[in-house]
Amino acid sequence: MIGPVFTALLSHWRRRPFQLATLLLGLSLATALWSGVQAINAEARKSYAEAAGILGGGGLSELVRTDGGMIPVKTYTTLRRAGWLASPLVDGWLSADGGRVRILGMDPFTIPQDTSIAASVEPSLYPELVGKNGVLLANPATAARLPDLEDRLRAIDGLAPNIVLADITTAQELLGVEGFSRMFLAPVQPLLRPDLASLAPELAIRPPSTANDLGRLTDSFHLNLTAFGLLSFAVGLAIVHGSVGLAFEQRRPVLRTLRALGVSARRIVLCLIFELLTLALVAGALGIIVGYVMAAALLPDVAATLRGLYGATVNDALTLSPLWWLGGVGIACVGTALAATNGLWRIARMPPLSPARPRAWIMASGRAMRWQAAGAAICLAAAICVATFGGGLASGFVLVGGFLAAAALLLPMVLSSLIAVAARWSWGPVGQWFWADTRQQLPGLSLALMALLLALAANVGVGTMVASFRATFSGWLDQRLVSDLYVSLEDEADIPAFMAFLEGKSEAVLPIWHVDAEVMGAPAEIYGVADHPVYAANWPLLSALPDTWDRIAGGSGALVNEQLARREGLSVEDGLPLPGGWTTTVIGIYSDYGNPLGQVVLSLGDLARHYPDVDRSNFGILVPEQGKEALTAALTEEFELPESSVTDQGAVKEFSLSIFERTFAVTGALNVLTLAVAGIAILTSLLTLASMRLPQLAPVWALGLTRTTLGRLEFIRALVLAALTFTFALPVGLVLAWMLLAIINVEAFGWRLPMHFFPLDWVRLGALSLGAAGLACIWPAYKLAKRPPADLARVFSHER
Amino acid sequence: MLLHVHGLKKGFPGSERKITVLDGVSLSLDSGEVVALTGESGSGKSTLLHIIAGLEPADDGSVLFDGEDICLMDDGGRAALRRHAISIVFQQFNLIPSLNVRQNLVFHARLAGRAASLDLPALATSLGLADHLEKFPEDLSGGEQQRVAIGRAVASEPRLVLADEPTGNLDEDTGQAVYDLLLALARRTGAALLIATHSMRLAGAADRRVHLSHGKLTK
User: Which residues does chain B have within 8 Å of residue A264's beta carbon, measured at their own beta carbons?
Assistant: First the structure.
């Protein structure tokens, strides 16, 4: 018996292939956006786990120097002789194509076998690893980025990205350091061993680090992506809800007939569930394929973003688990269930003789308007409560989510009021009918318009945030890039000749010396600056003591970047412990957008005194614009420098901005996709409503309006509703932008950005929304204009 | 006796007081018997048919079909009865718009598990629909749609056909033709037929006629 019932139910879709297509499209797009984002997040998290496994010693505690400096070999031997089972590690960075790679030097003979490093290296490779000129191990992608070490590199599949493994001696040789960065502690230690404080008071035991450390750092970014995925999923579900709900209502006569022919309500509901499950499986499968393609296309940009913002390395290629594929199908089923529960519930309780009332179904949504307004107030109140009394990134997202939900729920009421105002100003009978009819259409279109509102508000909000970031970043680069030319010398022995050469050829030569170190337990950069007025004139300070640069030059303090200050809660005049066991005072905090690391700026003298091994090969040169080209040519010739070693300010800025643009390419792509889904939601609603519109349109047609005029008015109606929705979306989007800049960004990245307004972008988006609505409406309007008169006339007969 | 309705009562809530539609209706039908149920519009003819078909519950009384009380059956039991033993022809045809004529005709027979014994070409020819099998309901006239509905009803080999003003939406000539067809098919299959109509002329062709007025059944 199931067979014929199922045939009858499915025949609805056969006769309405477009409705089926929109349902599948909506569900598969929603699934695609959601599972695409999940794929990206899963890949990133997998990379973090691999990296953390290697870097963090696979759950082992470590010995580190409290001042962040290197541990002398003598301390290590003292500990070993006293019975401490410790294994040394050298940790540093090597210059590589496209950035830096991390080198880990280990002692193959003492490293605990529980560590990921030990598990990554076959014991048969030990003889090649140890000693001078030992081999280096890296995954093929990382190895390809180190052409200078090609002859010593051994490519091994499965090693964490961006990491090179070597023997401890090799790492010391390549990094030019002595001693060890830290030591792994074996999980089982002799009970009767001397206290650490008596042997090496400068050392401390650091508990095991895990993937969570990097995970926590990047959580905000992934949460951002997830929020976008969820938003797109919600917008997609609007399409599914509309299509499924309407299909149920359109089939009510069939369901009534089936009941009359002896099919029980339970069996009908079971058949509908089976039908929906089939549709969800088909759409889910399509969705995960599209999601995979989308994730694969976006992953390189996401990897670049994570590298740029957090210094986190992520594989560029997707390797997804079966769980992800199942999750994609699962979310499609859950989405369908969410969208169809209400309809199924109504059918299960439907009396056998219940008449079909698609119009009533639509108007019921109208009655829901009052409830929606109450729901909006509750959402907003709850969001404000969480934001006021809660804290952290999650509260910020609750505020954003609650605000967007409230705005979406309020939309039908706002539109209804705006239309009522417009109706008051309308003239002529057609105008009056147009506005009255538009208001009557509102409940049926409200879900699609809510989807459009969310998409537009997200576009305005995220667009304003990104553009504000771009404007601030660009201005900040102008200030921060104080030198006109940047030079990297091949050999520090050339420095005296270099300085002598520039004598009289430039306004000033500013050394840019720096050392990579661990500051307050996290990787950081320590820079030295010369005593020159150009810094006081340009450097972007957020807060500082008076005479900042004089104090720096006098060696009485340091500047820290905003990230370090926020992370460690540092304020001006606070003490700042630095590697090497000395402490200085924070005398200023500066903005440092886009840098994943903490940064400290000292005077050149302090830097050279405390860190004699500092890299001294980089310089900035102040030179008049007209002399730049000639000086570049002279420098490259005189010191036989490659072209890449002399960079002018414009090129550095261009490069930085290109990284910035790539960073936000993902956001831009998701923005466009969400808007496209919203456009499809409108199209779906208009098409499904079109067939039910005849009883309202036929009388107007009979009174003398041509079908072409009716079609034209339908087109204008879609544009008017889109324009009104955009009008409401604009303030919603700007409030969203403020929330992103003032709350989410501060929690996520550690810096706050000023908000800028970009009216031209709004005009462009407004035109885009009108275009999307116009495109969505063109087909339904054309169909109406070409509708055979017999269809309209039939409304007046009793045959229907 | 195939059908025995006894003391059937049914009322609906009105604005001031309950409106009684059926007030102790009793009726019997033998196998193969054709009974016309007449009455004014709103007299409760449709309600009586709906209760007999198990589509609506009664307030009181019993409907014995083959000795079993339909009023005491659960939803599944009533659905099974409609599937296998009782067919209904509605005034509004109630065809499945997304299925073509062929599919609509065999639909009920498939539900009843009797599609194998159905001679569809013969049925279509007797209905005058042989040339319309691939058409969809929206492509047919009212008379043609009702013929499909009648064909669907008899194709499942029911023991009782309930027809609720099957000619109410048709002109006089078409209505007469449809009525004749229904009668002929019922007689040929041996099914009992209870047909609601307010046309005295059509009712005259039945074996027996009962009249419903003010909730009471009279002969």
Answer: 75-76, 79
pTM above 0.80, yes or no: no
- Per residue in A574-605, pLDDT tens? 999 888 778 899 999 988 776 667 889 999 88
CB-CB under 8 Å, A266 with B81: no
- The Cα–Cα gap between B92 and B148 comes to 12
Beta carbons of A489 and A645 less than 8 angstroms apart: yes
Closest CA to A282 of A333, A239, A238: A333
Token look-up 């992520």 returns A314
- pLDDT of A390 strictly over 80: no
Task: Tell me chain A's radius of gyration from C-alpha atoms.
Answer: 33
Condensed to tens digits (0 to 9), the pLDDT of residues A264-274 reads 888 888 899 99
Q: What distance in Å separates the CA atoms of residue A742 and residue A762, rounded to the nearest whole number?
A: 21
Q: Collect all residues of chain B within an 8 Å Cβ-Cβ radius of residue A259.
A: 55, 79
**What is the average per-residue pLDDT within A467-472?**
79
CA A622 centroid distance within chain? 38
CA distance A252 to A359: 12
Q: What is the largest CA-CA distance in chain A?
A: 104
A-interface mutation test, from B95, B96, B136, B139, most A Cβ less than 10 A away = B96
Tell me if B88 and A260 make a contact (CB, 8 A cut-off).
yes
> Alpha-carbon distance A392 to A223, whole Å?
12
Chain B: give the shortest CA distance to residue A253, in Å. 7
Contacts of A353 in chain B (CB under 8 A): 50, 55-56
Vertex A771: Cα angle to A768 and A774 (nearest 5): 155
Residue pair B39/B204 in contact (Cβ under 8 Å)? The answer is no
| Complex confidence, ipTM | 0.70
Predicted confidence band at B163 (pLDDT cuts at 50, 70, 90)?
very high
Could you tell me if B57 lies within 8 Å of chain A, comparing CB atoms? no
CB contact under 8 A, B98 and A12: yes
pLDDT computed for residue B38 by the predictor: 93
Please name the residues in contact with A74: beta carbons below 8 A apart, sequence gap of 6 or more. none
Residue B154 touches partner A, C-beta closer than 8 Å: no
Instruction: Give mean pLDDT, residues A322-349.
Output: 81
Burial B49-79 (b: 16+ CB within 10 A, else e): bbbbbbbbebbebbbbbeeeebbebeeeebb
Q: Assess A695–B contact: CB distance below 8 Å, yes or no.
A: no
Q: Name B194's Cβ contacts closer than 8 Å, sequence gap at least 6.
A: B3, B29, B35, B37, B49, B52, B160, B161, B162, B163
Q: Which of B48, B99, B144, B150 to mutate to test the interface with A (most CBs of A within 10 A)?
A: B99
Q: Is the pLDDT of residue A678 over 60?
A: yes
Of the candidates A254, A262, A266, the beta carbon closest to that of B96 is on: A254
Q: Does pLDDT of A800 surpass 50? A: no
Element (H, E) at A587: strand A582-590
